[in-house]
Design a protein that fits this description.
This protein is 51% helix and 19% strand. The chain has 410 residues and is α/β, with parallel strands linked by helices. It has three domains: 108 residues, Response regulator (Rossmann fold), CATH 3.40.50; 132 residues; 146 residues, Histidine kinase-like ATPase, C-terminal domain (Heat Shock Protein 90). It has a five-stranded parallel sheet, with helices on both faces. A five-stranded mixed sheet has the order 9-11-12-14-13, with helices on one face. β11 and β12 form a beta hairpin. α2 runs parallel beside α3, α5 packs antiparallel against α6 and α6 packs antiparallel against α7. The longest helix has 48 residues. The protein is globular, with a radius of gyration of 27 Å.
């Protein structure tokens, strides 16, 4: 049995309510319950009850407009998504609606059951994704509470053991700083996650909508363009989720170093093949191995994550047509992996903060990403008892070198 989706239409024109009711009744395979609020005030009262899954809001509402309603409703704690309805296409209104919190923008005169069903479905999915982010935030808040309890226990222990006042003050300062750092981490996490999720989700939403408009064979190129945009956006979302999940697992101590013996050369070649679908147009990855043999004993999954991350960064921060060089070296003392690009480089003033969580160099703020990648790479390398070094010059490129010193078991 399909779940009933409760929809509230906010429109001061009863004819529009009847038209919308007819359109929504033609949507197949789903059950909808459409309710109507005919005024700005009545709409706010119904929205405050939080009894609907999605709101359809007309742009014109007498002395008010739909954007005012969306702004006030969100400020009052509304959680379900808002879809703005207008009588004509207006890109400025569309963009303003998205900035204020609307999930989509539809034109009433062109509305079809397919467009409406697609918009409602994507808006609800978008809202569910944001809810997951909020739940992650709640988990971080619980960790803050746990750290606060740790602080209280530390103070009690200090009092019970009668330590000197100076020692007690030092311990408290450290705990408070840790608390402050965790709060900052939580705030940055929520801000970055919300922004980074919204951009690719909006891309998927708009491209999926446009694909439905291209129905002729000669429009295949346009369809493929938007399919590629959707694939790229989904890839970005996957990368963001992987970064957050990796950071969470590292923080919880769930990442372990499990070395196995394998041949480094085909291992790297396989990673390069995997990267071909993600590098920019005209970019080429050149691989060179030095030393014989090429057998190493390392954690394959951690090493793969390290190399994929470094190659992805090399592609992201390099222009189309640039070359990326990866070099491996194995000798009696060590195993080494080096990735060199011809990208934008890292400004000298930013290099001291390069491995800080969520840090973005000032020349990289216009590139997609969470600022977690290099922090995760550094922590993976540390777990594997390796070293990570780099050299970089702005506008000329960056080289990252990962080294693992051999033990008698290698």
């Amino acid at each position: 049995m399909t779940e009933t989706i409760r929809v509230l239409l906010v429109d001061d024109d009863e004819d529009d309510f009847i038209i919308t009711r007819d359109i929504i009744s033609d949507i197949p395979a789903r059950t909808y319950l459409l309710e109507w609020a005919s005024s700005f005030g009545a709409a706010l009262e119904k929205i405050a009850l939080k009894q609907h899954d999605v709101y359809l809001v007309d742009y014109r509402l007498g002395a008010h407009d739909g954007l005012e309603l969306i702004t006030q409703a969100l400020a009052s704690g509304a959680e379900a998504p808002f879809i703005l309805l207008t009588g004509q296409s207006d890109r400025e209104t569309d963009e303003r609606a998205m900035r204020l919190g609307a999930s989509d923008f539809l034109i009433k005169g062109r509305l079809t059951p397919f467009d409406l069903e697609r918009s409602i479905r994507y808006s609800i999915e978008h809202a569910n994704n944001l809810l997951e982010i909020q739940q992650l935030n709640a988990g971080l808040e619980q960790r803050v509470a746990d750290r606060t309890q740790e602080l209280a226990r530390a103070i009690t222990q200090l009092e019970e053991t009668n330590r000197s006042l100076f020692e007690a003050q030092q311990e408290i300062k450290k705990a408070l700083q840790k608390e402050k750092d965790l709060n900052e981490l939580k705030s940055r996490f929520v801000t970055i996650a919300s922004h980074e999720f919204r951009t690719p989700l909006s891309t998927v939403l708009s491209s999926a909508s446009l694909i439905g408009k291209y129905k002729l064979t000669e429009e295949d190129d346009k369809r493929q363009k938007h399919v590629n945009r959707i694939k790229s956006a989904v890839h970005n979302l996957t990368g963001i989720l992987n970064d957050f999940l990796s950071l969470s697992r590292i923080e919880e101590g769930k990442i372990y170093n499990v070395p196995t013996a394998f041949d480094l050369v085909p291992f790297i070649e396989e990673i390069i093949d995997e990267m071909q679908g993600y590098i920019k147009v005209g970019q080429q990855i050149h691989y060179r191995h030095e030393g014989q043999p090429s057998i190493v004993t390392l954690d394959k999954q951690l090493l793969k994550n390290i190399v994929l991350n470094l190659l992805s960064n090399a592609s992201k921060y390099s222009a189309e047509g640039k070359e990326i060089m990866i070099t491996t070296q194995v000798d009696a003392q060590q195993a080494m992996v080096q990735v060199q690009d011809q990208g934008i480089g890292i400004p000298e003033a930013d290099q001291a903060h390069l491995f800080t969580p969520f840090f973005r160099a000032h020349n990289a703020v216009n590139y997609e990403g969470t600022g977690l990648g290099l922090n995760i790479v550094k922590r993976y390398v540390d777990i594997m008892n390796g070293t990570l070094t780099y050299t970089s010059q702005q506008n000329e490129g960056t080289t990252f070198t990962v080294q693992f010193h051999k033990t008698p078991s290698l």
